[in-house]
Write a structure and sequence with these properties.
The structure holds two protein chains of two kinds. Chain A is α/β, with parallel strands linked by helices. Chain A has one domain: 3-Layer(aba) Sandwich (Mannitol-specific EII, Chain A), CATH 3.40.930. In chain A, about 40% of the residues lie in helices and about 25% in strands. Chain A is built from five helices and seven strands, in the order βααββββββααα. The longest helix of chain A is centred in the first third of the chain and has 14 residues, at about 20-30. The radius of gyration of chain B is 11 Å and the shape is globular. Classes of the chains: A alpha/beta, B alpha+beta. The interface of A and B includes residues 51 and 118 of A.
Chain lengths: ~150, ~90
């Protein structure tokens, strides 16, 4: 898999009022850096309503919003830490709410890479040291350092 | 107990959307369902994290096992869903 973490896809302290707002703000990282087409953000919002991507992991809750490859120019994954958790629905369990603290939004061009990206992110949070580093990150720079070190 | 092998055919593998559909179906089934991947990983298809971490990518052989009173019917439903994944 190609390098997943790019400096321009890191965002710290996102003030979002709900899941859609979080997706729209974080999605701008992809848009302004040319990773996605201008249809991407709306498509992610729509898909999230039908197939939620919130995940409650041990010690942290995250969301991994994404959409179909036709909306994407080049692959990447955002590492965004929210100022306050926002409510997402849990993947696979309609009605179960999770308070997501971070958004790993994915821009996928090769569908076969998708599962690898998901596993990589989930795998990171099984590592207590990595989890602590993401939890402790208090600036964009620290978040980038944690992401580069543990996700690569 | 009944079981059947399956080779993952859809390009994205059993990831977010297909994984969600699999978990939702299996949670409706009254029987015990277990998936073992060709790498020997045990996946609980009623748990989304277990499914995602199973790494069931395109081309991987998996074995679906069902144990319970309506195991034949449950297995058929799981296989039909797996066959239906195209994305």
């Amino acid at each position: 898999m190609e390098q997943a973490i790019h400096r321009e896809l890191i965002m710290y302290g996102v003030e979002a009022k709900d899941a859609e707002d979080a997706i729209r703000q974080v999605g701008q990282l992809f848009l302004k850096n040319g990773y996605v087409k201008d249809t991407y953000i709306d498509a992610v919002v729509k898909r999230e309503e039908v197939f939620a991507t919130g995940l409650e992991l041990e010690g942290i809750s995250i969301a991994m919003p994404h959409t179909d490859i036709i909306h994407v120019n080049k692959p990447g994954v955002t590492v965004a830490k929210l100022a306050h958790p926002v409510e997402f629905e849990h993947m696979g369990e309609p009605g179960r709410k999770v308070q997501a603290e971070m958004l790993f939004m994915m821009a996928i061009t090769n569908p076969e890479d998708q599962i690898g990206t998901i596993m990589k992110v989930l795998g990171v949070f099984q590592n207590k040291e990595a989890l602590d580093a993401f939890k402790a990150a208090a600036s964009e720079e620290e978040l980038y350092e944690a992401a580069a070190k543990y996700i690569g | 107990m009944v079981s059947q092998e399956f080779t993952v055919k859809n390009p994205t593998g059993i990831h977010a959307r297909p994984a969600t559909m699999l978990v939702q179906l299996c949670n409706k089934l009254p029987d015990q369902v277990m998936i073992t991947t060709e790498k020997g990983k045990q996946v609980n298809p009623k748990n989304i994290l277990s499914v995602l971490m199973g790494g069931m990518s395109k081309g991987m052989k998996i074995t679906v096992e069902v144990n319970g009173e309506s195991e034949e019917d449950s297995l058929r439903q799981v296989m039909e869903l797996l066959e239906s994944f195209t994305e």
